[in-house]
Design goal:
6 helices; 184 residues; seven-stranded mixed beta sheet; 32% helix
């Protein structure tokens, strides 16, 4: 079974411009997701899908084993669903399971990602999403089978795995995570 990791990282964001490359503790946010996936016991290949030359160059200059998939500009606009980006990725890269880790969740833990993958595999699920301690989806990671990438309806083979990472979308979110992680 081929399990790949992917970060979808566009350059512009309406609420927090350049959020994927903003630094936290001296490191771009996207690196936290990439580092977590590199430590996974399941993920065999890691990709970044982006339309940005700046993100592409940053990733290529910092990671020799992480590949970049060029995303069409129309899939990098505000309001484009992640599922559309996943479908483009699945049309370019072969895999059985895709692990999407959000670059704006720097507190994500590799143990939780691996627990989510184990849950998917052990229970023959189609997808697993991360939730916080209250059971609310937090966007830290989303694990999907190839079949689930193309499924447009409600998944009945669905599970959740806990990870308390904060999803950064605004300057306030970034400030909160900086305080929690000791990066004043």
């Amino acid at each position: 079974m081929k399990i790949v990791g992917v970060v979808i990282a566009r350059m512009e964001s309406g609420r927090l411009p350049n959020k994927n490359i903003r630094t936290l503790r001296g490191k771009p946010l996207i690196f936290y997701a990439l580092d977590a996936m590199e430590r996974s016991k399941h993920i065999s290949e890691i990709y970044v899908t982006t339309e940005s030359k700046k993100i592409k160059d940053l990733v290529k200059s910092s990671y020799k084993n992480i590949q970049v998939v060029d995303r069409p500009p129309e899939l990098a606009k505000d309001g484009v669903p992640s599922q559309d980006v996943f479908k483009h990725f699945a049309g370019v890269i072969d895999f059985d399971v895709m692990v999407n880790v959000q670059s704006n969740s720097p507190q994500v833990k590799v143990e939780n990602i691996d627990d989510g993958i184990d849950l998917l595999l052990d229970h023959d699920l189609w997808e697993v999403r991360s939730v916080d301690r209250r059971g609310l989806e937090n966007g830290a990671f989303w694990i999907l089978t190839r079949k689930a990438v193309y499924w447009d309806g409600l998944s009945v083979y669905f599970g959740v795995s806990r990870d308390d990472a904060i999803d950064i979308h605004t300057f306030d979110d970034l400030d909160n995570v900086r305080r929690e992680m000791g990066d004043d």
